[in-house]
Amino acid sequence: MNSTNRRLQLAVTLLTLLHFAPSTTAQDPHWDAYNDPVQFEKLSSATQNLLIAKFGQPPRFDEKGNPLPPIPAVTAPPRPGKGLKRGSLQPRPRGPLDVLGNVLVNDPKADLTAQDTQSETALVLGAGSNLIAGFNDSGSFIGANHFTGWAYSSDGGQSWIDPGVLPGSDDAGDPVLARDNTTGRTYFACLSFAGVGINIFRSDNDGVTWMPAVNGAPGSSGFQDKEWIAVDNFPGPGNGNVYHVSRDFGSGNGIFFYRSTNQGSTFGPLGGILIASGSPSNVQGAYVVVGTNHDVYAFWYDSNFAPAQIRMRKSIDQGLTFGAPLTVTTLTSTAVNGNLSLVAGFRSNSFAQVVVNPVSGNLYAAYNNPAAPSGGDRGNIFLRQSTDGGANWSAPILINDDGTARAQYFPALACRPDGTGLAVCWYDNRSHAADINMERWGVTATISGSTLTFGPNFRITAQFPPVFGVDPVVNSVYMGDYDMMAADNTSYYTTWGDNRDDSLAVPSRKNANVRFTSFGQSGPGAFLDLDSVVVTGGNGNGRIEFNECNELVVTLRNNGAEAANSIASILSTLTPGVTIVDPAQAYPDLPAGEAGSATFEVSTSPAFACGATIHFTLSVSHSGGPQVLEFDLTTGGAEYVITAGVDSIVAGVTDIGNHGDDVTTTIALPFPVTFYNASFSSATFSSNGNVQFTGASASFSNVCFPTTFLSNVIAPQWDDLRTDAAGSGIFIRTTGVTPNRVFHAEWRTTYFSFPGTANFELRLHEGSSSFEIVYGVVTQNSAGATIGCQKDTGSSFTSHSCDTAGSVSFGTMLSFALPGCPDGGGECITCEIVCPGDILQDSDPDQCGAIVDYPTPTTTAGCGIVTCTPPSGSFFPLGTTTVFCSTEAGPTCSFDVTVDEGQVCVVLDFQSEDDFATALFNGQTISTPPEFGNLVAIGSSGPNAGAAIFDSTPGGPNDPSQDRDLLVGSGLVLMLQTTDNTTQTVPGTFDRPNDEEDGGTLSFSFATPALLQSLDLIDIDTGADESSSVILTDALGRTRIYSIPAGWTGDLLLGQPGILTLDLTTLATQPGFASTATASQDPSFDAEHVMTLEVHLGSSGAVDNLAWCRSGC
Q1: Integer Rg of the chain from CA
Q2: Which residue has the higher pLDDT, 161 or 23?
């Protein structure tokens, strides 16, 4: 629809709406402005909010004058442990997307109703680390005439205390702060809620408490608006003076000036000094600063010129008189107060902010200005400088360096006390393609005389959406008018309205809070933001699909204020079926503001799920420190593809009852309809040529896709249409049979502003996400229509045309289909996997199996994650187990793990019991239990006193005994105790250990089958008729016998060995000292499963070092 016709219609409607508010006393100075739509539009946002708070929301109308529903009041239940009390200390939150510390200033726990708007921030520095902030606060209006909040910090802004409301009950927003740095007194100006003045509060403790307000505009003729204050902080006459300017909407009708020379106790002159008349056209945005020589400068926005201007007047006598007006700059916008007509739709202005260089006295004026009265870039930030007290101003300096056509607006600025630098901060839409969502950005400049040298722009915050039209006591198109900054010689300080947080009262939307940060002259260091991601390669369609090799070109931009050098990155993903072939890539060094790219090879397997979202993590390190950037890519057929053809409309039969202008009708669908892979059972049909699967907007003013105004929408012909003419409406029918039914919806409409008709049909299919649009007569040829579809509020969309004449004609059929995922043509590389060789391992002791750790199979890049079953580190039973290994990409391999029964070999040397821990001692008697029985039980028989321990150490405790032939130096040995010496002074210990000359038998019974290895024999020197033998018996009673003739070991006392080792693994003869031992065994004797060992001693003797191996299971 033509915007001029819309505005004319709106003007007619508004001018008929006199006295549209609830009745109130005629004496209230705000009443007339509230009831005058033209005057209401001239007011600052804070004053509009004041009137709405006092008198209620005026009826809202769209651009055609149609009534809109009021903004609802919502109250959220208090959260446990949280109420409306203010005053708690707010921690300093950090976030991965915050470049600098973005600290909450207001206390969001107090925002438990829909009145949760904080905006228009003021800021001033106190003593030391103290800071004071002010802001509009609609929550303060609950139960009292307050609309202004404040907070203070004593730690440089790392944390803030939000105390609540100001003294009295008459503050109404538009906060401005100024401080007398000589006395330490802070001044806080805001609008009056009930009277006709300006409230100026004073604090002598840096904003912890405030004195009652004084009237800063005494004798004013009507209610005041958009004030500003300044204090003369320069030495000499005038130091400490407080200056105030404001817009008087009474009979005086203009901007007036006041001053105080007694530390804000009173202001004058009575009625003020007229700075600029509001007749015949509006003046607004009053601003005042003080020069180094005590000159006073008053600035304002002046629409008495076409185009409008920023103007100023100067006083050289401390505000007693003012010189003639001078032009600072000429503006572009022709709207009220220089409204920029931002895409998001909230109101704006073109008011200036000005600072004085405290050393040179030069003036710096910052303002926003669109590229044209309509269309194009809706806002850039400019700065002009005057070096001669405002008589002349430099050419404008473009501050924002984004190079886009997206808006920047509401600049604030501050200058260092030493005059060597300044900073500017503003709201910036550069990063949002739809020119709606915003970030806070900034820039610093060094100053040398009249030369300003600006550094690169830098990002201060994460991106957040606009929040407006949701607070019942706030103008529906209001989101703040300005912010303030401050500076000392080390840092710049800024506050701003920030909408990143969820509302406590209405969690489905965001909350308008206030945040703070500070930065030095060099700004923040280097930091990188994701700029763009482009998919190339594969099958060439620019999407990632299955079985495909793509190149991912990831571009980063340095949005810090210093160069980012030595940039290294690693790209990763956990999405199944996706492999980053060479994940480590370097980026070029990036000066501040510059962008650079790296290319990553991304391979998807044949099993990759079509339509899946791939989540990527880019870990980056550079000279500014480490960063982690994350992004998602939708894959496959995420967007509808349009094919144009020809067909005729299938006429609808059933009238759904949609008849009117800007009306919607919700109906149940005859079958579930799939749209962008989501299923819907109902839809809302708008007279304005669209169908919405979520939401029910009757918006007639079409915009191009993507848009946040509609959600899950198909727009056959989104235009300003009517369905209330004869024969008009929306008619439906269903054809076909289950499961192939088709739902037809036919619009028969007329245009709101133009002659002619628009006739078109939408077809939806059962069991399919495809749909068609068929056109009949469309008189205006879609010149003002949007045609296409959009998922949710714009995450995916397909646009056929937007305000394009001739984009469709009679008989055109547009077929929309999700293309799915074609085969990508092959992975980047072929996956190869090689398993380790077969593994043989002995059983763990007593486990009948073993825990086996095996090497990981080797793979080529592109295989993805390798999974083996059973995994390494598992318990494998006896025998052979096959391990199977597979890759994400598909190839597999296998290998065998064999666990052998295994053997554990031990030597029993009789220095300790068979637990190999409990020590034995000389003369100790041996029985089972207690000394042995873990691995082997020991017994004895024959004409002896039993088995006993003998110390064979020469010079040891047994050296004086008569059996010195046992002193072979083998430590403790096992013998058969003689019956001649059985005395045991200590029970269990023979007083005089000695071997039995008549011999006997030592027996060993093994707990588990054993493979005997060897045995040491000592003093086997029996006579020919007194032979010895060693007998092994297996589990089945079969034996192996070793015959030991006399003289086999020799006698130690005769200089002979006296000790030899008998090999128990062989049947071969074993020569000794004077004789040879022989062996024989039963058939099938099982040497690996010996259960007993017997040593038959024909006379004296001993044994030592019994060695055997036992099974591991």
Answers
A1: 47
A2: 161
Rounded Cα distance, 685 and 666, in Å: 6
Please compute, for residue 1111, the number of CA atoms within 13 A of its CA located in the half-sphere on the CB side.
Answer: 17
Residue 195 confidence class, pLDDT cut points 50, 70, 90: confident
**Amino acid in the structure at residue 416:** R
Structure tokens of 1109?
């191996």
Nearest CA-CA partner of 349 in 228, 514, 478, 466: 478
Name the more confident of 102 and 22.
102
Instruction: Say if CB 439 and CB 431 are below 8 A apart.
Output: yes
130 with 525: CB under 8 angstroms?
Answer: no
Euclidean distance between CA atoms 685 and 690, whole angstroms: 6
Q: What is the pLDDT of residues 447-481, one digit of tens each?
A: 999 999 999 999 999 999 888 887 777 777 878 89
Report d(CA 294, CA 287) in Å as an integer. Answer: 16
Q: Pull the structure tokens for residue 785.
A: 């229509």
Percent pLDDT > 70 in the chain is 88
Strand ranges (E), 825-872 = 833-834, 839-842, 849-852, 858-859, 866-869
965 backbone dihedrals φ, ψ, rounded to 5°: -70, -10
**Whether pLDDT at 689 is above 70:** yes
Nearest to 383 by CA among 455, 454, 316: 454
Name the token pair of 521: 């002259």
Fold held by 528-634: Immunoglobulin-like (2.60.40)
3-class SS letters over 131-145: EEEEEEEHHHHCCCC
Question: Does the pTM exceed 0.70?
Answer: no
Beta partners for residue 301, in sequence order: 284, 310
Q: Pick the closest to residue 275 from 246, 317, 238 (CA basis).
A: 246
Q: Which are the contacts of 494, defined by CB distance < 8 A and separation ≥ 6?
A: 123, 412, 414, 423, 425, 440, 442, 460, 483, 485, 486, 516, 517, 518
Architecture, CATH, for domain 904-1111: Sandwich (2.60)
Three-point CA angle 983, 985, 986, nearest 5°: 120
Torsion angle of alpha carbons 374, 375, 376, 379, nearest 10°?
50
**Contact in structure between 353 and 367 (CB atoms under 8 Å):** yes
DSSP 31: H
Number of helices and strands in the chain (H, E): 4, 74
- Specify the long-range contacts of residues 740-746, CB closer than 8 Å, at least 24 apart: 740/765, 740/766, 740/767, 741/670, 741/671, 741/765, 741/766, 742/766, 743/669, 743/670, 743/671, 743/673, 744/650, 744/652, 745/652, 745/685, 745/691, 746/649, 746/650, 746/651, 746/652
- In CATH, what number does 102-519 get? 2.120.10.10
Q: Say if residues 734 and 814 touch (Cβ distance below 8 Å).
A: no
